[in-house]
Amino acid sequence: MEREVTHRYVDPLSEVWLGAAARVGLRVERSPHAYASTDGAGTLVIGSAETLDADDSLAQMIFHELCHSLVQGEPSFGQSDWGLDNETDRDAWREHATLRLQRVLAARYGLGAFFAPTTDYRTFWDALPEDPLADRTDRSVVHAIAGLRRVGHPPWGPAVEDALAATAAIVAAASPFAAAGSLARGYTLPAPHPTGLPPGTAPGRSCGDCAWRHAAGAGKRPRCRQADGAAVDDAWPACERWEAPLDCQTCGACCREAYGAVAVAARDLVRKRRPAYVVDRGEGGAHRYELRREADRCAALAGGEPVTEGARITYRTYTCVIYDDRPRTCRDFTLGSAHCLTARRRVGLSL
Asked: 5, exposed or middle or buried, with CB in 10 Å at 0-12, 13-18, 19+?
């Protein structure tokens, strides 16, 4: 008697990521005529099993495409292939941003090797430093950080991180049974940082040499601005948000779109010495002086133009042309302060 088949088997990891894609708003279809492609109308096409390599997986492919959408932002769901040019190297730096983001997210769950890409960009992935976000002068890093900041927000959140956590649980359960050569072999889940933030991946760093550590007063433990002011121990290893001492000339965030206006007091020397940079926003005879702005930045801020070096795009250093005469508002702005962190977050330089 022929058995009636009432269910079908789907690989558990595929179930997780197909479900995550659906929660984000994507229908996943398989086709031998594509490797990975989106139509801008909610369909993600992934190559069928016979077109993929032995170290490919549907889970990794979906994860990678979701990382593309995180880097490109929500409007990319309405564009074919996330709005990317796949025929030339024009958007190679955006692929780099996606791989940096993918590396950081995977590392949170110890899945860096498990979710490594299998395309021609594998060479780039393998050459990434322990901290893929270390060089904040690289445009691909800035866009990867922007993607990371979107992870917890709709339509991606909480689907993407739920899927990563489920993947980690499956791989951890399979690891003791995995054969030699399996990507699950030897898997361990990283312990969270003592602050509760994701652990760091670069050895040799500690809370004691992080830009966001600040003194809390005599006899008190230092505090961390990234951990909402929580006390930290200088000996603790660094978390994912560790940053080296900050350099205003490679940042300029406080003078760019991070803040919309800089107040100028009536007695500030800049009014007399550099009047061209000051405007009066007051009405009805009342004065309200501010530094003049051009587009999304202070008119006195120079630099920041992109510089192309192969596929890498960096920016010229920033300088203030009225620095010696800058108003008190600027003088009181402290490097490494809470306002500094807010400014850097707003321009995508800090997590």
From this structure: exposed
